[in-house]
Specification:
Rossmann fold; globular
């Protein structure tokens, strides 16, 4: 394939969707495919940027929301971006385009799809259907357009596949389930991080949907019973300042550590040294971070929400309700004080067959979906 991979955010940003796009690009290049990655993250540079042998183009897209008086300049900018995308697609002889995560910047490719005849795949991770399309009308329009236009839509979990079919019934027969995967060998190769005290780990975006404030509040309650336990939060987002202020307000500055964004290898090392990974999210699709924790050999304490309650097994983790920070606090205390509890969960993790979520085992399935090999779908004319 000559593949154009659209990922609005990309390395060094390391959310779940970005990590999957990064892994897919690397493995597709290893298999001899030509990959160009188009992203709005980072600063555009004149010199060619390469990652894993894939070409990375960082683009400054027009802002999606402008005041009415900006309409003429917005139209001119849109026409310019449309011509630029057409040049990228034709000059690179692109025969397949994968929208790794939907946002408004993908509309230029959508407008060119039928005219240029490339195969189009669209990946859904959960937030698009469950949050963003409900919050912003413009995004809802772009998401429905992408699903209607796509030759195939990929949902990363069965729950998400059903929700996507309800959102866009006209695309229901083109929505396929391909679960997320992680580089199991890469996680296992990391050496465990050294830390002066036992610790719990949160790894994700500091955004309201990831609910980090709930975890800090629960940890503050548990701290009254467990003194020799730290909490490490890896990631960044719109709640950076709010979480830092909450940590200070609860007097936890010596035990709660906000490390910001870190390279994936460093996150894997922190996972391998942690007692448990904690995921207090309000909603999830099929979170990569759970699979990475299992590959690192550690159990997961997770909120009992869609996307987590069916994934996190009770012999390899524990669920807690989001209406009671005390329930999570009690789990934290148990993890810190009951070695038998953690040992039992670690044994459950060790028994999981990770081949089903190993990206190297799944990559051929992704190739089939993105390239259309043996995948029969019917798109309305």
């Amino acid at each position: 394939m000559n593949l154009l991979l659209l990922s609005p955010t990309f390395h060094p940003h390391c959310g779940g969707a970005e990590s999957l796009a990064d892994d897919l690009a690397r493995l597709l290049v290893e298999r001899g495919h030509a990959v160009t990655i188009l992203t709005a993250s980072g600063e555009p540079v004149d010199a060619p940027e390469m990652r894993w042998g894939a070409r990375v183009l960082r683009v400054r897209y027009p802002r999606p929301h402008r005041p009415p008086f900006a309409a003429p300049s917005l139209l001119a900018e849109g026409l310019r971006m449309g011509r630029w995308h057409r040049q990228i697609l034709t000059a690179g002889a692109i025969d397949a385009v994968c929208i790794a995560r939907v946002d408004e910047s993908c509309r230029y490719v959508l407008a060119l799809h039928r005219r240029l005849g490339f195969r189009l795949s669209v990946y859904l991770h959960g937030g698009e259907i469950r949050a963003l399309q409900r919050r912003w009308r413009r995004f809802r329009h772009v998401l429905r357009w992408a699903m209607r236009e796509a030759d195939v839509v990929v949902a990363v979990s069965e729950d998400l596949r059903r929700e996507a079919a309800r959102f866009a019934p006209e695309a229901a027969d083109r929505i396929l389930l391909v679960p997320n995967g992680v580089d199991v060998a890469g996680v296992r190769a990391a050496a465990a991080a050294s830390w002066p005290r036992p610790y719990l780990l949160f790894a994700g975006r500091l955004e309201p949907v990831k609910n980090p404030a709930f975890l800090v509040e629960a940890y503050a309650r548990a701290r009254t019973e467990v003194a020799n336990l730290d909490l490490i939060l890896v990631g960044t987002g719109s709640e950076d300042r709010a979480i830092a202020d909450l940590v200070a307000a609860r007097g936890l500055g010596d035990r709660v550590h906000l490390l910001g964004a870190l390279p994936r290898e460093r996150v894997y090392a922190l996972m391998k040294g942690a007692l448990c990974l904690v995921i207090p999210s309000l909603a999830e699709g099929h979170p990569l971070v759970v699979l990475e924790a299992w590959a690192a050999g550690i159990p997961v304490l997770a909120s009992a929400v869609k996307g987590l309650r069916d994934l996190v097994r009770d012999d390899a983790g524990a669920l807690f309700p989001l209406d009671d920070p005390g329930a999570l606090a009690r789990l934290i205390v148990r993890a810190a004080t009951d070695p038998g509890f953690v040992a039992r969960l670690r044994a459950g993790v060790a028994a999981i067959d990770l081949r089903a979520c190993d990206i190297r085992e799944l990559v051929d399935r992704h190739v089939d979906v993105i390239g259309g090999h043996g995948i029969a779908t019917t798109r309305p004319a």
